[in-house]
Amino acid sequence: MKKWIFRLSILFNIIFILGWLLNYMNSPTYKLGRLKEDVNVGFFYGRKKNV
User: Fold this and answer.
1) Taking phi first (over 0 means left), then psi (-120 to 50 degrees means alpha), and beta for anything else, what does residue 50 get?
2) Prediction pTM value
3) How is residue 28 annotated by DSSP?
4) Helical spans, DSSP H, in the chain
5) Rg of the Cα atoms in the chain
6) 6-42 pLDDT tens trace
């Protein structure tokens, strides 16, 4: 009984460490998608409105 608890504990530790490493490696990319200033959406459509 103690062997499967030990193996399960090792498995969960490996999963936790892999998840932490993936999060640590991808953390710089979280800042890439953020806008530094507000974008005026109407600017992309031009001045005339097609309604």
Assistant:
1) beta
2) 0.52
3) G
4) 2-26
5) 24
6) 999 999 999 999 999 998 887 777 677 777 777 666 6
